[in-house]
Design brief:
By secondary structure, this protein is an all-alpha fold. The chain is built from two helices and no strands.
């Protein structure tokens, strides 16, 4: 018997932006991007990207 997963999609709220940015960072690392290739201010850059995308 095939069981369908229960997936809930919703808009992220502003309080979750740092969590989303951290997931982006981990995605880069999981795709073998060396940490020294990622800018040290990655969090601020990603938060700005999220803010711009939300507009």
């Amino acid at each position: 018997m095939l069981i369908k997963p229960n997936i809930n999609l919703r808009e992220a709220n502003l309080h979750e932006d740092s969590l989303i940015a951290t997931h982006f960072y981990q995605m880069w690392r999981d795709n073998d991007v060396p940490a020294h290739f990622i800018q040290s201010d990655w969090l601020e850059i990603t938060l700005q990207f999220i803010e711009h995308a939300r507009q």
